[in-house]
């Protein structure tokens, strides 16, 4: 099986309104990367971009989880359109690559990646 067929894009559209679910998705993403031996990317889209906010109640926990993901080799990206729609700016966020979410998903699908959405 080619590497692209084993690669996975995890798209998180769940924000702080569902903390437990967002937390579970971050943990699952880490385990997929650690145990699957495949390229894994995390894309935060729509309300999902809120977990990158550095000034909220659960920021410390999300910052720790995002750091673990990065150390494991997971690329973290955030949709610039979603940021703008929610009135968020880069200086309010933890570090992530800023991308056009729809383009990112389309590119990965075209490359044969698995796409998981939550």
TrEMBL record:
UniProt-listed InterPro entries: DsrEFH-like (IPR027396), Sulphur_relay_DsrE/F-like (IPR003787)
One Pfam short name: DsrE
SUPFAM superfamilies (UniProt xref): DsrEFH-like (SSF75169)
Listed name of the protein: DsrE family protein
Organism: Mycobacterium botniense
